[in-house]
Design goal:
about 15% strand; 10-stranded mixed β-sheet; 4-stranded antiparallel β-sheet; globular; 16 strands; 11 helices
Length: about 450
Amino acid sequence: MINKRTLSFLSCLLLSAFFLTTKAYSVEKPNIILILADDLGYGDLSCYDGVHSTPHLDRMAVEGLRFTDFHSTASVCSPTRASIMTGRYPHYDGLDTYISPVPGNTIGLDPENVTFPGLIKDVGYKTALFGKWHLGYEPKHNPLNYGFEIFHGFLSGHVDYHSHYDRLGGFDWWHGREQKQEEGYTTHLITDKSVDFIKENADHPFFLMVAHEGVHFPLQGPTDPIQRGPDAKPHKPRNGKLVYKDMLQELDISVGKIMDVVKELNLERRTLIFFTSDNGPMPFSKAGPLKGKKHSVYEGGHRVPTIAWWPETIKAGSVTDQLAITMDLMPSILELAGTPVPEDHPIDAVSLVDFFKNQEPFDRQSLFWRRAGKQADRAMREGQWSLVIDKTDRVELYDLKADIGQQKNVAEMNPERSSTMKKELLAWEDKVKPYLNYLNYLKKQ
Ligand SMILES: [Ca+2]
């Protein structure tokens, strides 16, 4: 028989076990905040010797780990974003290029695909996306169908920063599955919602995707007039360089506010903040020493500023030239959440979690890029070597250690390396699907 005293003792024991488990759970499963800038170039930030002053991102780098050879999986938005969700090359999913908001466009990331937000939600993470999605416009493509519990933002590639109309004049601001207008400059709205979400979920693990519109066009700072929608008025645009500077400054301030709230809530030791960009720069942003910009398969199209911040786990003030890529986020996030990549979902990415913790360089398999468009350029990286094959099948080889700007084609001087890498690149192309999205895209124009 169990008497009252034994029962009380057992209750205390169970209660203690519950609290111990709860505590261990929160320490083992860190919060993850992914801040994804849009079209931010390698030469924009002051911590990358860039042309603009970005004190908050600089602070993030001083307190965290700065990557000098980190890449977006593509040189335009949608394919990079798809690869972050799936951990594999977007070409397998028919997403070679960006998804146009033309009415009736049914292209998108298949919601039946394995994506990480649903997997981490299943193991106790609160999940939210604030900002840009750009992975499909059909109701089935809504972010809520991929494991996000909260979505406030826009589906297309870019909206007016004030009125939230897309480039074809469609209204594009959503609360979950509902279109709903909200007053405010896009960067500010995304930031405020992110800060509130962090405060509301401080007591359990969360994944927050801060998918900024900044610094994509339209060129609009917080004080510039509305350009799209029923309230747009003719206006004389300000100097583009100055507007761009304001847009980048707002993005930088946003990063500062997110780091600050994490610290205020004493969450910094169990929160990874990862900052990167979905592709290289647009006309007013800079690629720094790199050749090419957005759309290009040269380094400038996809080598992007990237900082990882996790006090006491990631060594402060470190810089690495480890070759890594945005699709690595998928297995990294799953590992942090303590849930495996499903066995029936082969991926091309690797988890960076060990690297965050010990920063010992690891061997990286080759990486590949293909631009869908009028020029089907392709590229690959293998260590310090970059191979580019243009649409006429001309082969270029660059030694990035000696020539980061890809100015001197050394293919003829290295025939064996060129030939081997070319074979690897063509074999990769054989594996991935053809330019499905681009062909569909052309049909819709
Ligand atoms: Ca982009």
